[in-house]
Amino acid sequence: MPFMPAIYAMLTKKPATRLCCIGLSETLMQLKPPLGIFGGTFDPVHLGHICPVQEAAQETQIENIALMPCYIPSHKNPAVASSQHRLNMLALVCADYPLFHLDPRDIKRGKPTFSLDSLQELRAAMPTTPLCFFIGSDSLQNLCSWHQWQTLFSLCHFVVCERKNESVYNVTENSHTSAQLQELLNNRQTIDPLVLHNSLAGHIYLANTQTVTISSTEIRNKIINNQSVKENLPTKVVDYIHQHKLYQPRTDFC
């Protein structure tokens, strides 16, 4: 009995053609709730880290964020406090803010840190979980200088916490950077937070967050000059810094 044309076509179809019909869209797989990732030196962790990310998470309906401290940031000077002290302060934050949990993988890696390394590990471990990398608008403007930055969009989304006078729409001094950033937003930006839940990676979401004008450097300088930092830090972090005499002159952080 001769083959019917439809059956013959199916059996003789090239493998590559058949494969492209499998998983045509992420909508065909059951995606898990997104995981937020927020990395930094956290030296120390302060409300300028916590509050904007909390607001962005609420806006995007992301309920789980990993705080990922760097061992040795590839783009900054080495940390002032030891890795263990920074981990301990972050653990105090996680205990008081259920949104966050501590992920020490970068510190355990014990070598210069790139975001790509951690994202690749997370993607391999969680193939059906959308990954949402939280950054500030200043970091977005420099994103095209990150290590293998194009590859990052195959691994995660970016949720941008905009800061006062640092909107990603501000014109930068470098016209090439400005044009590159605008093209990136044209291609990647979404205004729908549900896109972050319904796809694994590839989008940029600009969150409307409050202004917290403080930096870790300013906090360390305040401590050195015996100025209060209670309005800038969670209470337990303030107590920890005082208990261990962190960021004070002539303190050994080895």
Number of helices: 12
Structural class: alpha/beta
Low confidence ranges = 1-24
Number of strands: 6
* Termini Cα gap: 82 Å
The protein's oligomeric status is: single chain
How confident is the prediction overall: mean pLDDT? Answer: 84
The largest sheet, given as strand count, sense and whether it forms a barrel, is: 6 strands, parallel
- Widest sheet: strand ordering: 3-2-1-4-5-6
The helix fraction, in percent, is: 40-55%
| N to C succession of SSEs | HHEHEHEHHEHHEHHEHH
How would the global form be characterised?
A: globular
Question: Rg, please?
Answer: 22 Å
Strand content: 5-15%
Quick gist of this model?
Helix content is 41%, strand content 11%. It has 254 residues and is of the alpha/beta class. It is globular.
What does this protein look like?
By secondary structure, this protein is of the alpha/beta class. The protein is about 40% helix and about 10% strand. It has helices spanning about 5-10, 15-20, 45-60, 85-95, 105-110, 115-125, 135-140, 150, 175-190, 195-200, 215-225, 235-245; strands spanning about 35-40, 65-70, 100, 130-135, 155-160, 205. The chain has a six-stranded parallel β-sheet with strand order 3-2-1-4-5-6, sandwiched between helices. Helix 4 links the parallel strand 2 and strand 3. Helix 4 (about 85-95) packs antiparallel against helix 12 (about 235-245). The longest helix has 14 residues, at about 45-60. The model is unreliable at about 1-25 (pLDDT under 50).
